[in-house]
Design a protein that fits this description.
By secondary structure, the chain is α/β, with parallel strands linked by helices. Helix content is 43%, strand content 18%. The protein has 14 helices and 16 strands. The strands form four sheets. The protein has a seven-stranded parallel beta sheet with strand order 10-9-11-8-7-12-13, sandwiched between helices. Helix 1 crosses helix 8 and helix 2 packs antiparallel against helix 5.
Length: 432
C-alpha cells in the first residue's frame, strides 16, 4: 500500500513540475512578444477587461457565491470573507480601477536618462518591462484584475496564482481576461490564471528561474515566508504591516490627533489591512491626550494594550507584554506606549516596526525632518493617516502590492514599478 501511495505522490509531483514548466515557458514567450507591442493594443485590452467586468456582473457574483459557501463550510476568518465577497458595487469598483490603469501614461520606452559624449556617442537609459512575473496572493478577487491590468500596462506577462478561497471567482474572471486578450490580438499567455491551488504546483513554479524573472507574494506572512524559502528567482516581498503613529511633544490639536488615529485603526472593517496603525507612541509631555485617545478607541470597540505608564493612567487597558510591540494585529487591537523623546520613538520604530508605514503627528519642522530622515520605512506620513499608504491614494492607480523591500521597488507598486531599464548606446562607428 505504501509503494502505491509513493507512486501516486511521485506522479502528482511530476505533473506539477511539468505544468509549472509549461506555464513558465509560455509566460516567457508571451513576455518577449508583449514587450514589442505598442501601447494601443495593450490599453484597448485593459479597457475591454473593464467593460466585460461590468457586463458579466451576474456571472461573477454567482461564481463568488460558490466561494462564499465554501468559505462558510471551511470557517474562513471574518476579515478574509469580507475581502472575498463581491457584489455589483464592488465589481463596478474593480472595473473603475482597471480603467484608471488604462488611463495612465504608458511607461514603456520612457527615456529615464540621456546624455551625449563629446565624441558624439549617445547614451540612454530606457524603461522596459521586467519580462515574466509570478504573482501569488490570497482571498481578494479584485487583486486578479488589478494585477492583470498593471502587468499589461507595464508590458509584462504574468502568472496569477490566487488562493483556494476565490477559486470559482477567479475562474470567471480568467475567462473575461482571456477574451480581452484575444479581442486585441495579444499573446494568449500574457495573463495566465492558475486554476490549481496545489502547494506542490506553487513550489514547482518557484524554481522556474530560467523563465520567470520575478515573484511577488501578497498575502499572509506564512505564504510570503514559504515563497522566500523556495524561490530561486528574485522575490519582491510584502511582509508585515506593523505601522506606528508617533505623537510628538509639538503635536497638533487633540481633535486632529484623535481623527488620524481613529481613521488609521478603524477605517477598514476589523482593521485587517497592512496599512492600519498597530501601535501609538506618545511623547511623555502629551499625557493629557492619553485618556481622550483611549476613550475614542474604546468607543470604536478597539482593544487597547498599554505599557506600564499607560496602564497607570488608564487602568482599564490590558497590560502589554514584550511580544506586543512586534505584533501586526490585523484586528481592532492597538498597542500604546509612552516614550521620553522623539529619538526613543524613532529607535522603537526602527527596531520593532516592519518598514511599511509610520507616521508623525507634529507641528515642529525640526521634529518632522528628523522623523522623515531617520525612520527606515517605505512610507512616512506627516500629520496624516497611515491608511493613505496605498497606490490609488498616491496616484498610481491600483497597486500590485506594497513592497517592504528596498530593491527593486519600495512602497505601493504601480505600473512604473513593474518595469526595469536597459541602456541603449548609439554611435556612428565608435570603438574603444
Amino acid at each position: 500500500m505504501s509503494n502505491q501511495s509513493d507512486d501516486i505522490s511521485a506522479r502528482l509531483l511530476d505533473q506539477a513540475q511539468s505544468l509549472a514548466q509549461s506555464l513558465a515557458h509560455q509566460a516567457r514567450q508571451a513576455g518577449l512578444l508583449l514587450a514589442a507591442i505598442d501601447a494601443g493594443p495593450r490599453t484597448a485590452a485593459i479597457r475591454a477587461i473593464a467593460t466585460s467586468l461590468r457586463a458579466s456582473t451576474d456571472v461573477i457574483v454567482r461564481a463568488n457565491q460558490l466561494d462564499l459557501e465554501h468559505a462558510k463550510i471551511n470557517q474562513l476568518a471574518g476579515p478574509m470573507v469580507k475581502r472575498l465577497a463581491l457584489d455589483a458595487d464592488k465589481i463596478n469598483a474593480m472595473a473603475d480601477a482597471v480603467e484608471e490603469i488604462a488611463d495612465q501614461p504608458d511607461p514603456i520606452g520612457l527615456v529615464l536618462e540621456s546624455h551625449t559624449r563629446r565624441d558624439g556617442l549617445k547614451i540612454e537609459k530606457i524603461r522596459v518591462p521586467i519580462g515574466s512575473v509570478l504573482f501569488c496572493y490570497e482571498s481578494r478577487p479584485n487583486v486578479t484584475t488589478d494585477a492583470a491590468a498593471l502587468c499589461l500596462r507595464s508590458g509584462n506577462a504574468v502568472i496569477l496564482r490566487g488562493g483556494k478561497e476565490a477559486r470559482h471567482t477567479n475562474a470567471a474572471i480568467a475567462l473575461i481576461i482571456a477574451a480581452a486578450l484575444k479581442s486585441r490580438d495579444l499573446p494568449e499567455h500574457a495573463v495566465q490564471i492558475v486554476a490549481s491551488t496545489d502547494r506542490e504546483l506553487l513550489y514547482a513554479l518557484l524554481v522556474q528561474d530560467s523563465f520567470i524573472d520575478l515573484v511577488i507574494p501578497r498575502g499572509g506572512e506564512s505564504l510570503i515566508r514559504a515563497v522566500v524559502q523556495h524561490a530561486t528567482m528574485p522575490v519582491l516581498k510584502h511582509f508585515t504591516g506593523n505601522c506606528h503613529i508617533y505623537i510628538d511633544q509639538h503635536a497638533p490639536d487633540l481633535a486632529q490627533v484623535v481623527d488620524v488615529i481613529i481613521n488609521s485603526k478603524t477605517s477598514y472593517p476589523g482593521g485587517a489591512v497592512c496599512n492600519a496603525v498597530e501601535h501609538v507612541l506618545i511623547h511623555k509631555s502629551q499625557l493629557a491626550m492619553l485618556e481622550p485617545i483611549c476613550k475614542a478607541l474604546s468607543a470604536k470597540h478597539v482593544e487597547i494594550r498599554g505599557d506600564e505608564r499607560v496602564k497607570s493612567i488608564v487602568p482599564e487597558v490590558i497590560a502589554a507584554v514584550q511580544s506586543d510591540w512586534d505584533e501586526e494585529y490585523l484586528a481592532f487591537i492597538v498597542g500604546i506606549k509612552i516614550v521620553d523623546s522623539i529619538d526613543d520613538a524613532i529607535a522603537h520604530i526602527n527596531h520593532h516596526g516592519s518598514h511599511h508605514t509610520d507616521a508623525i503627528l507634529s507641528t515642529d519642522a525640526g521634529a518632522i525632518r528628523a522623523f522623515t530622515r531617520k525612520v527606515d520605512s517605505a512610507s512616512i506620513m506627516v500629520n496624516a493617516s497611515t491608511r493613505l499608504a496605498d497606490g490609488g491614494e498616491y496616484g498610481l492607480g491600483a497597486e500590485i502590492g506594497i513592497s517592504t523591500d528596498k530593491l527593486h521597488a519600495r512602497g505601493p507598486m504601480g505600473a512604473n514599478d513593474m518595469c526595469t531599464y536597459k541602456w541603449v548606446v548609439t554611435g556612428s562607428g565608435h570603438v574603444r
